[in-house]
Amino acid sequence: MDRTFSSLYDCHELASPPERWTFPRYYYPGGSQDGGQDGAMVEIHPGEGPPWLGIFAFGRLTARGVSGIFTTPDPQCLSVVAKGAGYLVRADDPSVWSLVQANPIIDVRPIPTWGILVFAEHTRLIAYGESGVKWRTKRLTWDDLMIAEVTDEFIRGEFWDVISKSTGEFRVSLATGEHEGGISEHQSGCEG
């Protein structure tokens, strides 16, 4: 578990289901207590209130999808990434949750100096702050985005540029999400 940001809860991933279910289970996506898909099992202990078990469905889009549990800039919220599928959920209220707007997630970088948690997918980045999405980049690459460096001011990434048949680079401002480099607007076609 990445504990970069302070939190008002404790949690840990379970390798197998508890022998006895003594506290509520919530399945994501959906936040249902009636069942759902197999996924990462996380035991969550809010600062106040009873513990609960979250089952977060695995992503199915890529072998490069990462997994992990991350504290977020919101001390009541945690992020669970399960084989590329990302979730944000309040530890003190498991009915309050959302999907991370990146899919599949191939990298996650907490940036405490800017109070953001950055998620990378194959072609762009999205940053979440304490109150939700802080910024989202335009398309940076054709595919295979790789974060090469994180400084106090920017994220530098690399990718294979199919047009020039060479390695390309981009830099994304941590303050705004604006970028330099990457594929140009006229090369990217549809932004969708």
What does this structure look like?
The protein is 2% helix and 47% strand. The strands form four sheets. A four-stranded mixed β-sheet has the order 1-3-4-2, with no helix packed on it. The mean pLDDT is 92. The protein contains one helix and 16 strands. It has a domain at 1-100. The longest helix is centred in the C-terminal third of the chain and has 4 residues, at 185-188. By secondary structure, it is mainly β.
Provide a concise account of the structure shown.
The protein has 192 residues and is mainly beta. It has one helix at residues 185-188; strands spanning 9-14, 25-28, 39-46, 52-57, 68-71, 77-82, 85-90, 93-99, 107-111, 116-120, 125-129, 132-136, 146-150, 154-161, 166-173, 179-181.
Order of helices and strands: EEEEEEEEEEEEEEEEH
Mean pLDDT: 92
How many beta-strand segments? 16
Portion of residues in helices?
under 10%
Shape, per Cα inertia axes: globular
Rg, rounded, reads 18 Å
Strands of the biggest beta sheet: in what spatial order? 1-3-4-2
Q: What portion of the residues fall into strands of 2 or more residues?
A: over 45%
Low-confidence stretches: none
The helix tally amounts to: 1
Biggest sheet overview: 4 strands, mixed
Which structural class do the helices and strands define? mainly beta
- The N- to C-terminal Cα distance equals 32 Å
Show the helix and strand layout.
Blueprint: E1 9-14, E2 25-28, E3 39-46, E4 52-57, E5 68-71, E6 77-82, E7 85-90, E8 93-99, E9 107-111, E10 116-120, E11 125-129, E12 132-136, E13 146-150, E14 154-161, E15 166-173, E16 179-181, H1 185-188
Parallel strand pairs: 2-4
Antiparallel strand pairs: 1-3, 3-4, 5-6, 6-7, 7-8, 9-10, 10-11, 11-12, 13-14, 14-15, 15-16
